[in-house]
Design goal:
The protein is α/β, with parallel strands linked by helices and 467 residues long. The protein folds into two domains: 108 residues, 2-Layer Sandwich (Alpha-Beta Plaits); 353 residues, Peptidase S8/S53 domain (Rossmann fold), CATH 3.40.50.200. Helix content is 24%, strand content 23%. It is built from twelve helices and 21 strands. Helix 7 packs parallel to helix 10, helix 8 packs parallel to helix 9 and helix 10 crosses helix 11. About 10% of the residues have low confidence.
Length: 467
């Protein structure tokens, strides 16, 4: 079985899985978001629905859902969202008439914010690099946000907890284990997949894809073990698995990726907030359209979840996406969850501080940026971090070079964790303000659609160094 990584933008079946383009986007690709959303809106036939309603479900509403042909499969009463399964093609119309239900739409799947390329480090010979000094030579991205001895002399992140909402986290990884707090699984490996797809995941909070472990290592890889170091090397990692590893067929065999229903992700956001985590990192995303059938249900669900987290004291950090689009020019399409007001949307830069060719951007979306890598000096212009050896793409690989906004977001989440650790009781709005006010300007314009306020920087944030 040939398994590879996708390296271009594609759509698989009716699922909106937005992948990164190795060559960037040309002008005629500006309608990509609209095309993705139109296809995604057609997935109501899958029989998975989101109901947005006022308050928690009562007996009358439950009976009405059943009478409309629906079976409740997941409830998130804190924000008035319920996932329902139905084989009745008229269910959405019937459910929209139920008293108290404000929006009905398909419970769409989201794909990973996949990087343009990944390289397992074992395949690369680096002269003079040993087991214990990979960080010093290759983790340019961690150093770029102030991950170094001067910052860690002030704060290493102990006492702060970052929730990684992703494909899971490989808890036994030497870089992760010292800071691994716990894992929770919100996925269902029995979910029906499109024809030809293979479920690689074996369930539970473990990571069978690798993406979530890569993210966790960038946030809080420990100093005392392993081969890489995270921005906040003593922060705790809370694993909220919201995506499963699958193999998707194409002309050359299969490619490995992660997918998850939106209801899984929203449930993870709300639960993490209730658990009292300081930061939520989501290196995942997709497109939702307010003007498409059911689009409002999808967007409002994310809107409520991220607002709920913020109200509970949790900062939500999300990758802006890898389509190279100005997000303010694709309305009424929104990239979610990064496009919700309560989420901190993170764009990616390369080693030279330019906006990465794949990174989304937008004046109304961007606040700060983080290093996500580019292909200028591949693979050393990529971001090196931990990886799950249970993955299908490079079985046994424990460390991988990768690029994408998925790699940028965890650097900012790590900086935020340091601020939380230094300032117990600080609120999300205060953390966000600190990150923005202390960001390092990259274009000397103060604020821009590409870079927001600039590069998040740990030392500057901890010392409150402003422009």
């Amino acid at each position: 079985m040939l398994i590879k990584r996708r390296t271009h933008i594609t759509l698989v079946g009716a699922l909106a899985l937005l992948l990164a383009a190795c060559g960037g986007l040309t002008d005629h690709d500006a309608s990509l978001a609209e095309f993705e959303v139109a296809r995604a809106a057609a997935t109501a036939e899958s029989g998975e629905y989101l109901l947005v309603h006022r308050g928690a479900l009562n007996a009358r509403t439950r009976n009405a859902i059943a009478a409309a042909g629906g079976k409740i499969v997941r409830e998130i009463p804190q924000i008035g969202v319920t996932a329902v399964r139905s084989s009745d093609p008229n269910f959405a119309r019937a459910a929209s008439r139920i008293r108290g239900v404000t929006h009905v739409g398909p419970d769409l799947m989201l794909g990973l914010e996949l990087p343009a390329a990944r390289v397992a480090h074992e395949a690369i010979t680096v002269e003079g690099i040993g087991d214990n000094d990979l960080y010093l030579a290759l983790q340019w991205d961690i150093r770029r946000v102030g991950g170094d001895a001067s910052t860690w002399a002030i704060q290493k992140g102990a006492g702060a907890t970052v929730a990684v909402l992703d494909t899971g986290v490989y808890s036994d990884h030497p870089d992760i284990a010292p800071n691994y707090a716990y894992g929770k699984d919100f996925t269902d490996i029995t979910v029906e997949l499109p024809p030809g797809w293979i479920m690689w995941d074996q369930g539970g909070p473990q990571d069978y894809e690798g993406h979530g472990t890569h993210v966790a290592g960038s946030i809080a890889g420990a100093i005392t073990a392993g081969r890489i170091i995270g921005v906040a090397p003593e922060a705790s990692i809370a694993n909220y698995k919201v995506m499963v590893a699958v193999l998707v067929p194409d002309d050359d065999g299969y490619y490995a990726t992660g997918i998850g229903f939106q209801s899984w992700i929203v449930d993870g956001i709300v639960t993490a907030a209730d658990d009292g985590v300081d930061v939520i990192n989501m290196s995942l995303g997709g497109w939702r359209a307010m003007n498409e059938p059911g689009g409002a249900a999808a967007y409002v669900s994310y809107l409520r979840a991220t607002q709920y987290a913020r109200q509970r004291g949790t900062l939500v950090v999300a990758s802006s996406g890898n389509a190279g689009l100005d997000l303010t020019r694709v309305r009424p399409e929104f990239h979610v969850p990064s496009g919700t007001p309560a989420a901190l949307s993170i764009n990616a830069t390369g080693p030279d501080d330019s906006l990465a060719f794949y990174s989304n951007y937008g004046a109304s979306e961007t606040r700060v940026v983080g290093p996500g890598g580019d292909i200028s000096a591949a693979p050393f212009s990529y971001c090196l971090s931990a990886y799950s050896p249970l993955n299908a793409w490079a079985p046994g690989a424990g460390w991988v070079f990768s690029i994408g906004t998925s790699m940028a977001a965890p650097k900012v989440a790590g900086v935020a964790a340091l601020v939380y650790a230094q300032n117990p009781g600080i609120r999300p709005a205060q953390v966000e303000t600190r990150l923005q006010q202390t960001a390092e300007s990259l274009d000397h314009r103060g604020f821009s659609a590409e870079f927001g306020h600039g590069m998040a920087h740990a030392y500057r944030a901890l010392t409150n160094r402003r422009r």
